[in-house]
Amino acid sequence: MHGKFYPAMPPMATAVRTQSVADAVPAAEIPRFPATLLQEGADLLALGLPKPVIARAMRAALEHGTSVESECCALGVAEELLYHQALAKALDLPFIAALRAGAVHDGAHLDTQLLRPEILRLYHPGQAPTQVIVPRLADLDTIWRQLEAKPGLRRLLAVTTPRAVRQAVWEAGAERRLRAATSHLFENWPLLSARIVLWGKQGFVAGVATGTLVAGCLALPTITLIAAHLVLAIIHLAGFGLRLSALVAARRLPAIALPPPSAATGADLPIYSVMVALHREEAVVGQLIAALDRLEWPKSRLDIKLICEADDHATLQALSQMVLGGQYEIVRVPPGLPRTKPKALNYGLAGARGAIVAIYDAEDRPAPLQLLAAWAQFRHAPAELACLQAPIIITNGAAGALPALFALEYAALFRGLLPRLAAARLPLPLGGTSNHFRTEALRRAGGWDPFNVTEDADLGLRLARMGWRTGMIAPPTYEDAPTDIPVWVRQRTRWFKGWLQTWLVCMRRPRHLRAQLGWPAFITLQILIGGLLIAALSHPLILVFLAYFLWLLTLDAPAGRDLLTICLFTVDALNIVGCYAIQILLGLRSMREWERRAVGRRWALIPLYWLLMSYAAWTAVIELRSTPFRWNKTPHKPVQPA
């Protein structure tokens, strides 16, 4: 553009070109800028952009190692509109601010314009189509020469904004994209989808196992019950052993280094996509936007997608009242079943422009350095590292017994057990938020299963089965736990139902699963998913047996002195006490001081917490039969200031 374009421009623009860039940036600051940024600033000034906009864009480009053009568009919707209007005026082409989606023909390659909006054809009845373009500053000379050589092109061309192209493409391809978001995994890898609850032989095996247990209880009740009791005891003991190993190893695990805030500079930072699925979240959108705005990453290299159901008018209305930066995009998912978070994420993934994708929930407050920490780890890790999980910290532990025990559980999981699994290169059942993926690996793995109501755990295990690895990063995400028992039960029921779906999917071909993972990972998966489910379901039964044995002792009954009964009682007592103790110790060991103060002595109520979990697990089993894909929505409230 330097000098070639301007002689052909209208006289007014040529006169503007003679102004110094010092008209936009104070002369004292000019020595700080390299020549390329000064030239860009002068070019944008020549296009007629306001001086304050150019000055802000130049400072941001210097700080982030980007271009003035990209920073100008990242300032916001108004600046992007103003900038492309100026480009259209310079090219003497019409400008179209909004494109009619009905004029766009859907096709297999249409979604490329979501990733890099450049050109789109609009069809009009009875007249020639219009080609809308999104020109770049560096291309103006070339486009101008083509227009000079072929003046007839002016009747067919128009200029628009990247945002307008993406919005038209989202709408034009909505139905096709919805079908893909719903059916892609099932159509390509049916054995990896939870769309069919019991697959093939699984129903037969489940029926035979149930029949055998019933027949055994009728024919040989004592032997059958003792055998079942021993199996349950071994399962509880395995879960205790896994968590005990995490507690012992916690002192030996290396600390994960935090990147300095100054790392968010330099031209090598990739585009980072952040996706948040929102459904009936109008109460917390303000808090969410404030949290996302605090992320340490250049706004010009952020691609934040707020994914909403198209008929969720309350959330969309709340978002329309927010002042969103140029990095934000609202994606509307057409209504359709199943109405789940993973389906919405699959829909949004089609337009994710980043090399890395982060997933958050509506109520999340991620640490500002979290993206930097994930990028730094991905940058120095082999390609097999496909995902990073950030720890989740519960901040309302002081609000009551339920959130206190929830906080203890999360500390034990995200800062106790999962780092141990990651260090041992074992599969991680991901949390539902604060996951950071290499975008290419995520797409190659098939995205999320829209029929699995714990899509996070399912995807973490599927990545492991496909040869990828998951790690941990240090900067946490802060959340509030449910404070009402009915809300907690609905949430936990969904989790148990999803874990059962995940275990059934994994166990459709056990030999193949073992070959994919190897014995250590295969056994760990059984303990983590299957073992947790069985432990939760059987917990009340073991408590009943312990109470029964103690009752026998008070009666001095002969059965209370039976050696086998004493042995079973001893094992069960150790399992129950160990189960409670290891969760308390692992949780408290992983917590910060302020978290331990918030929990106080409420950890003593953990037996009641386990009974609630058992109730939720049995409810999940019932729901899996009746409503396997129903998503029990957890309502969220803004965080109250301390």
TrEMBL record:
Signal peptide: none annotated. Its main location: membrane. Residues 356-547 form the Glycosyltransferase 2-like domain. InterPro entries: Glyco_trans_2-like, Glycosyltr_2/OpgH_subfam, Nucleotide-diphossugar_trans. GO terms for molecular function: transferase activity. Keywords: Glycosyltransferase, Membrane, Transferase, Transmembrane, Transmembrane helix. It is found in: Membrane. It is a multi-pass membrane protein. The keyword Plastid does not apply. It holds the Pfam family Glyco_trans_2_3. The chain crosses the membrane at residues 218-242, 518-551, 563-582, 603-622. This is Glycosyl transferase.
